[in-house]
Description:
Layout: E1 4-10, E2 24-29, E3 32-38, H1 42-48, E4 56-60, H2 72-81, E5 88-92, H3 96-107, E6 115-119, E7 126-130, E8 134-140, E9 148-154, E10 160-161, H4 163-168, H5 173-180, E11 185-186, E12 192-193, E13 199-200, E14 207-211, H6 221-224, E15 229-233, H7 241-246, H8 252-261, E16 266-270, H9 280-289, E17 293-295, E18 301-303
Parallel strand pairs: 3-4, 4-5, 5-6, 14-15, 15-16, 16-17
Antiparallel strand pairs: 1-2, 1-18, 2-3, 7-8, 8-9, 9-14, 10-13, 11-12
Amino acid sequence: MEKFEVTILGCGSALPTTRHFASAQVVNLREKLFMIDCGEGAQMQLRRSRLKFSRLNHIFISHLHGDHCFGLMGLISTFGLLGRTAKLHIYAPAPLDQLLQPQLDYYCAGMDYQVEVHTIDTTRFAPVYEDRSVTVYTLPLRHRIACCGFLFREKPTLPHIIREKIDFYQVPEYAINQIKNGADWTTPDGEVIPNRYFTRPSEPARSYAYCSDTCYLPELQEHLKNVDLLFHEATFGKDLEKRAQETFHTTAEQAATLARDSQAGRLCIGHFSARYEDETPLLHEAQEIFPNTILARENLTLKL
């Protein structure tokens, strides 16, 4: 099975602590790296996670609060120092392009690579990136400013060839790719051998959803149905639900309820308030609703 991993670089919230870095993650899909949010310290955490800078070409920013984007300029500058030449694509709400350009002009003049900012619409569910392996969608969220999450849906791979049957019928190499794409095989004697004889199904396509800062939104279920792994903010416990409502955040109980109702495979909660010295109560609160819940932590890698 091809690699599909999520590495947590930071899972804290707005106030810095000695226990957590600000929000940042990396999705590794078939050795292509995609960053989600880029809080302070993200590049240090990339080093610690032993992720290769050269394989990161796309960064998705959920919203423009500092704990989700203050690490961008440092990372962009470091890429320049490393001699990067490949274009870096950043997908973010407006007005990141306007905010970033003066800093690029001042700190990165003469840099050998381009930074292209793609402005995204945070109000609708829509694809914002696609390649041969994955489609990335925006997930409309509700926070104090324009904000969205991201859904990574892997594209199905071609069926697996059953080599012994290919050999038995002496199928030439040039025809194997046609069979993988659904063709039957006709022998030199004119016998048609059905495609299903030569192939077995590939592994099911996988999916990962990242729900950044938001109040509780039950309507997300329609987009998260059967997602393999859901990361959802759980800034507060249910005893602080009023505070969560005031600040447009979610409790651990609410995050777990969404995971349960979406029939997610696993739930990882994060974006913890600085008030918590121990997030175990948040974990227990979520597990009462959705048992397959874990706590985010720095440099944790989750395999799908």
